[in-house]
Specification:
This protein has 495 residues and is mainly beta. The protein contains 8 helices and 24 strands.
């Protein structure tokens, strides 16, 4: 299979990587002091300045720091001036400055991945995928003339927590083409045999990881008290999902009709009657008696592709990659010298690749059954995040935030890898049946006038011609999306 768009998840590195996390000292002010530190060594009297008169004598009271310090300044001591200086020193440091930041965090994300095949009319999706994610990030901020620049990088690794559902839906969009039935009397088309199937499995034990590198300008402009820092970079995300305990039902239908007076559509299963003379006929609904016609002299009836199945082991396995450049804008607002909030919006233009092991081969042996690809700049990524940060010590800050990501691609190319050995062996087996009866391969393939060929052999031959090297390619077949929403708790240290 392969598919379409949905949503979201940055990495915790999105709004929580140092790109936004420490741009312009947003989350670390560098002057955190506890109240005990600020006031432990100062008495009330030592903080007061000015003059007073006692017993007719005027005294000058000098605050802690001494007359010498005031004299060295070349001025009489001015309490108001000192208070202003103290307040300025305690104010938040809004300039970015230089230095390294390093941090990490833990997040819990809920995600969904879906892909859709346009021509094959099939949808596969993984719902409510829970990721427990650990992330690490670091950044270096430095001055370059009048600008402050930042280099940053991040890494994340996640494990799937709990079970989620996989649904493989070949019903909603109409089903897949199986074969076309031809009337042997006049070679007219009787109708198409269409397959409908639905399976539901359990997904657990998946994993994901990603990384990003970026380069940005810090505090390029302000709007009110909000500082803006643009950046560019490269981001990579990969996740692996498997399906186990898969249960399904497949029904091949032969004739569909709309129920009179409604929009309801009903389809009859494909029932093939085989007669003693070797001929066969597909049964159709009797429009008069509203029942399947009874074929006289039938040898047996074949229900074709109608069956129930269950797979206790792994039935589906996928590796999905989104990778490419991005542009981003970080926004930071200082609440006070201990607390700040920030946000990030990121637009990415990645490529897309999905490699799947699916039950599309009759032998159920498929190291790689499908591969879907779209080049870089063919897909789109929207990442958003916000966080609140508070100082814990002079160097350490605590953060709490949310992330949202949405990846989507349309018109990705699909390749299906067939098992050449299976089809070749089946073709040769059919050929042997014909040659044992003294008939030729040309007759088996319906290339001789007035000879009805072998449908299985003809389909295999046609498949080989349509899929050179037993690889079936379809351009623009896939639409896919991935979305996630996460909550994150982290720490950031500045050096």
């Amino acid at each position: 299979m392969t598919k379409l768009p949905k949503f979201l998840f940055r990495c915790s590195l999105l709004a929580f990587a140092p790109v936004a996390a420490n741009a312009a000292g947003t989350y670390y002010t560098g002057n955190y002091q506890s109240p005990q530190q600020r006031y432990a060594n100062q008495s009330y009297a030592s903080q007061r300045g000015g003059t007073f008169t006692q017993n007719g004598v005027t005294y000058n009271r000098v605050p802690q720091g001494g007359v010498g310090n005031a004299a060295m300044a070349g001025n009489r001591y001015n309490p108001a001036q000192r208070n202003a200086q103290q307040q300025q020193a305690a104010a938040p440091q809004t300039s970015a400055g230089k230095g390294f930041t390093f941090g990490g965090g833990f997040s819990h994300e809920m995600a969904k991945w879906q892909f859709e095949l346009k021509e094959s009319d099939s949808i596969l999706r993984y719902d409510d995928v829970a990721w427990n994610v650990l992330d690490l990030h670091g950044a270096y901020q430095f001055d370059a003339g009048s600008m402050t620049l930042k280099l940053d990088a991040g890494f994340k690794y996640g494990m799937q927590g709990g079970d989620s559902n996989m649904i493989d839906d070949d019903i909603t969009n109409g089903g897949y083409f199986v074969t076309q039935w031809i009337d042997s009397k006049d070679n007219s088309v009787i109708g198409d045999q269409i397959g409908h199937a639905l399976s539901v499995g359990t997904s657990d034990g998946g994993k994901m990881y990603g990384f990003n590198v970026g380069f940005g300008l810090v505090d390029v402009f302000k709007i009110g008290n909000i500082k803006f820092s643009p950046s560019v970079g490269y981001r990579y995300l990969k996740y692996e999902l498997e399906t186990k305990k898969n249960y399904g039902l497949a029904v091949d239908t032969a004739a569909c009709f709309t129920v009179e007076g409604s929009d309801e559509v009903q389809c009859d299963p494909a029932i093939i009657v085989k007669f003693e003379d070797g001929s066969q006929q597909i049964l159709w609904r009797d429009s008069i008696n509203d029942q399947m016609a009874v074929a006289p002299n039938a040898k047996y009836i074949d229900t074709q592709g109608t069956y129930y199945y269950q797979q206790p082991g792994t039935s589906h396995s996928y590796e999905v990659e989104w990778s490419g450049p991005y542009i981003a804008m970080d926004m930071a607002y200082d609440i006070n010298k201990y607390n700040a909030v920030s946000g990030r919006v990121e637009l990415g233009f990645p490529g897309y690749k999905s490699t799947g092991d699916q039950p599309y081969r009759f032998d159920w042996a498929h190291p790689k059954s499908v591969e879907d690809k779209a080049n870089m700049f063919s897909a789109f990524h929207l990442g958003m995040g916000a966080q609140w940060m508070t100082a814990v010590t002079d160097m350490l800050s605590l953060s709490l935030g949310v992330t949202y990501d949405y990846y989507t691609v349309s018109d990705a190319d699909a390749t299906t890898y067939l098992n050449a050995g299976y089809y070749t062996d089946l073709y040769n087996a059919r050929l042997k049946l014909w040659t044992d009866e003294g008939r030729t391969e040309a007759e088996m393939l319906g290339q001789v006038e007035n000879v009805i060929g072998d449908a299985i052999a003809m389909n295999i031959k046609e498949l080989e011609e349509q899929c050179p090297g037993w690889q079936c390619k379809s351009n623009g077949e896939i639409e896919s999306f991935y979305k996630s929403l996460g909550v994150r708790l982290g720490l950031v240290a500045k050096f």
